[in-house]
Amino acid sequence: MTYKKFIFGLVIGSVAITTLFCSCEKKEFDNNKDLEAANSELVLKNGALSFQTTDAFFETSEKLGTLSDEERQNWENSIGFVSLRTELINIFTQIDEAEDENTVKEIVANNSDILEFVDGEVCPIIKSNSYAAIVNRKGIFFVEGVIHKVESGKIAYSEDGNEQTVTNALLGELKSDRKDVNVIEYINSSQSRGCGSIKTAYVEKNKKKCDFRMRTYTEFCAGCCDNFYYRVMVECSATNYKKKFGFWKKYKTNCTMKEMAYTIKAPIVTGYNGKHSVFHYENIYQTGGTIKSIKCKTAKAWGPIGDKVQNIGINAPYFIKVKGKATNDGVGGEWADINCGNW
Fold it and tell me: Which of 2, 4, 34, 167 has its CA 20 to 30 A from that of 117?
């Protein structure tokens, strides 16, 4: 039986510990060829990505999860697209260059459609790195003509292709009898089973900090003719901060994530009954891998686990157990340590 594996679970030759260099410096990946192939199945529609097939959507998301931010930027430039990811990078650069607290608050207020304060920290409203790389600033993308709008932990979609329809759906302003628009939850931050859907840790020293996160959620898209699809995603990120004017601001330094491992109950598809996928759940264990970034503000990677399920919902994923470590050059060899579950 073959499972979809997240990038840091890959085994190279007979080496027990694998290494993925996810650098801000330019590096060549075989996946770039796959992205070129996927490009043939997408166009830009009013500044948003429009995927001609559901496979093109899922393949593009998966390949982007293996690239560095520079490679993601090169891909966007090659097709003339500006993602939410790029918008956030540009705004966080302004925040990093701000010289007082009031300027930071003003920048956040001017970009309140995509940023918010959480416990004194400036955070993106859309928490998923994979969706941030796919959607535009408005949170929009299309698949087989179906419009999707991502906002925080929810996605609205409609076959009418109308942006106002999905916007109103997320605001709860549509009539309940509308059959051509739906809203689904893709991140369940309140998941309390096992180790939950997100684990965080940080290490702080000398006014420098490394913030480490591992998250699981469902990736979703809908296609034409009432078809829709779910799969389980896992992502990891390490963000580098230094304190200035009372705020934690991102800065460029070298950072490392290592010893990441987890177990998740994910769907395994065994067939199709003419209406929807036939599947069961299995506990899938992934381990191994080191991700190093060179002079980056944030190192991040994401990818699927288990199989893609069609026309039927799946349970909100959670970590049965999860662990990993992260550090950067600014915290003097200290490590942020995630460790939950029975190891």
Answer: 167
